[in-house]
Amino acid sequence: MSDPTLTTLAFLGAAAFVAGWIDAVVGGGGLVLLPALLVGLPGASPAQLLATNKLGSIFGTATSSVTYYRRVRPDLRTALPMAGVAFVGAAGGALIGLHIPKSAFNPIILVLLLLVGAYTLFKPDLGSEAIRRFHGARHTALAMLTGFVIGVYDGALGPGTGSFLVFTLVGLLGYTFLQASAKAKIANFATNLGALVIFVPMGLVILKVAVVIAAANLIGSYVGARTAVARGSGFVRVVFVVVVSAFIVKIGGSLIGWWA
Fold first, then answer.
1. Which stretches are transmembrane (predicted)?
2. Are 60 and 218 in contact (CB under 8 A)?
3. 143 band by pLDDT with thresholds 50, 70 and 90
4. Cβ distance 87 to 194 under 8 Å?
5. Which residues contact 180 (CB under 8 A, 6 or more apart)?
6. Measured between alpha carbons, how far is 147 from 142 in angstroms, rounded to an integer?
7. Closest-CA residue to 28 (of 257, 245, 258)
8. pLDDT (tens digit per residue) in 166-208
9. pLDDT in tens, 38-68
10. Looking at residues 150-154, what average pLDDT do you find?
């Protein structure tokens, strides 16, 4: 693969900033950045794109995790066990992802996004206040199961991971959108790290690109996390619905041939 031009790096940097902002607010920045990498680096293999995306994104998830923790103070008794198993799941998923074509996941992602978007849209009170549905060990176990399953998905492909984490924490466990976003960022950092444990030793990261998107993603994540905390759960919910809807249009249009 030839070295990317300055124009390509600028394009990928802009995409990484937007992806970082979206990731910090509601998750799903990979659905912006991965297609941008595919366009900007047509000679790269799917594994190289996934690895480069993960290294670029982990700086953003680290930044938003710290920002959320300082300002929202999520309960680490749930967040840390969930992140731990998410790390393990992502490492296993990365090994699976090396052998699975990305195209096989698009129909599954579309169905999941349709269900998530419809449920959120037609339940206007969802995530507006905390209504904890499970307690004690059962609550932690469900959070860990969520972390592991979504971690495997993130390691294997990844787009929409943050959105799926947020939705599950809100819909299944009863957190507000703001609290769910805070916990999702910690888990998403762990899934990025788990995948990189597999990808980096294999030499799959395109380092020059990863450095550019890491810097842009970090800035976008910082701005997005501060915006979400300042505006509250109502704002996060609106952005969540808008982003999920955009992803549905994009993936659905690709599947029926509206665009490449």
1. 30-51, 79-98, 104-122, 134-153, 159-178, 190-215, 235-259
2. yes
3. very high
4. yes
5. 127, 165, 166, 167, 169, 170, 173
6. 9
7. 245
8. 888 988 888 888 888 889 989 999 999 999 999 999 999 999 9
9. 778 888 887 888 899 999 899 988 988 898 8
10. 93
Query: Tell me, what amino acid is at 158?
Result: G
Give residue 102's pLDDT: 56
Question: HSE on the CB side for 236, CA within 13 Å?
Answer: 34
237 or 208, which is more confident: 208
- Which residues lie closer than 8 Å to 195 by C-beta, 6 or more apart? 50, 51, 54, 90, 91, 93, 94, 154, 155, 158
Q: Which string of DSSP letters, residue by residue, matches 61-128?
A: HHHHHHHHHHHH---HHHHHHHHHHHHHHHHHHHHHHTTS-GGGTHHHHHHHHHHHHHHHHT-TTTTT
Spatial CA neighbour of 127 closest among 159, 170, 86: 170
Structure tokens at 108: 């599954």
C-alpha 8 chain-centroid distance: 23
* φ, ψ of residue 173 in degrees (nearest 5): -100, -15
- Going from N- to C-terminal start, the domains of the chain cover 6-256
